[in-house]
Amino acid sequence: MKEIKIGLLGFGTIGAGVVKLLASNSALLTEKTGTRISLKSIVDLDITTDRGVNTEGIILTRTAEEVLTDPEISVIIELIGGYEPARSFVLKAISHGKHVVTANKALLAVHGEEIYAAAKANGVEVLFEAAVGGGIPVLSAIKGNLAGNRFSTVLGIVNGTCNYILTRMTHDGADFSEVLKSAQELGYAEADPTFDIEGVDTAHKLCLLLSLCFGTKIDLKDIYSEGITSISSEDVDFAKSFGYRIKLLAIGKMDDGQIEARVHPTMIPIDYPLADVHGVFNAIRLTGDFIGPVMFYGRGAGMDATASAVVGDVIDLSRSMGAGISRRCAPLGYLDEKVSTLTIKPMGEIVSKYYIRFQALDRPGVLARIAGALGASGISIASMLQSARSASEVVPIVIMTHEARESDMRRALAEIDTYEVIRGKSTFIRIEDNLE
Questions:
Q1: What is its EC number (predicted)?
Q2: Which of 40, 92, 143, 205 is catalytic?
């Protein structure tokens, strides 16, 4: 029986999950692949801490070089994260003819083109199912069973930290800072949560989704990213009153040869399936010309779910290697020479409905001035809500608009924010309510 030996880079939470799965389901993997998959070596700076998994018979080392160049090892699993040394290690493994499985969305979003080219030159594969959606098999579906479709949209709730925070704010009425602290205590948020709450992690994942759905190279800096730090419990409550929930949404749309690529808090109707994705769960919704809308839902992070996706890629490689097949599918699902560079639509040209909240002095004529400024920019009001007077004489005014161009909206709000009756900067949230 053919044996496939693996080298694992990174023995953190996910790495421990991979060790656990390979040991627990070893016989099952052999039954499904016809090969014996064995973990030969693990590389980590800390090889003494007990991870709660059995490492008997596995070589533990702090030296990556000896694993990356080991001729017996044919697959490298990279779970270090970040850009370096992950990039250098992956390229080294590829140069020595080793296939690579990674969960590193940041690495691929920034250095993917270089890594894919190196893999092609060396006749090996790079698989990364775990990089988006944890254990949700969305990337393999895009490259596999759904490959016959032209995709028009991809929408995703792909950051569990943000979704947990917004879920708690929605269900418990808690403030952002309070829920963030709780998320950190529970291990759902990092000590420095910037990448999560500012939308950077979501943008990394959207970069990969766009490349696979639309067959294009994407420069991460071209993806508009906005986090959830400005969302208040007041906005969450107003969203409910209008029949919406707020989610941090990754949005990709094909629009007349251009791609909309944006990450930001978004109001979606409360009766839409995406609005019902709670806690640390993720969901990705695709629309294809033949399949129509389809949604993938599941655990977007965590030891077991992510390990499942990593080992799934190893199984895929094992089947190909067992059959003597190399590079059965290009990394992005398109022939390398057919990957294009589509134009990203400027954010100012995006057309959307909007929720706007002003903090205004309760004075005669305020609503008329606001409506006049919006109208002068071609923005039509769909509905309006003004709270009762308060002791401070400052009240929230909430407006829901019809579809408007982003640049027009920003110009109107910049003017309104200068009015002496407006206190603080206005808040606006985009609305997605036409998902069919």
A1: 1.1.1.3
A2: 205
